[in-house]
Amino acid sequence: MPQLNPHPWFFIMILSWLPLTQIIQPKLLSFTHTNLPSNKALTPTKTTPWTWPWT
CA 10 to CA 16: how far, in whole Å? Predict the structure, then answer.
């Protein structure tokens, strides 16, 4: 069964992932976020119950 032999495709997989991890990943991680999360405390909103006209 040739698909169990990792020799032909494992080397190709490693060669294709090395550029991705060495070149593209640092470029993507260097982007800065435009909307940084703030430390503002969330205030709970006051909800009023719906008044049904027929009750």
Answer: 10
Report yes or no on whether pTM surpasses 0.85. Answer: no
Round to whole Å and give the CA distance between 19 and 34: 27
H/E stretch holding 14: helix 7-19
Question: Which residue matches tokens 């719906």?
Answer: 50
Q: Which two tokens stand for residue 19?
A: 């550029």
Q: What is the mean pLDDT of residues 26-38?
A: 78
Tokens representing residue 6 in the block: 């990792």
Write the single-letter amino acid at 2: P
d(CA 50, CA 55): 11
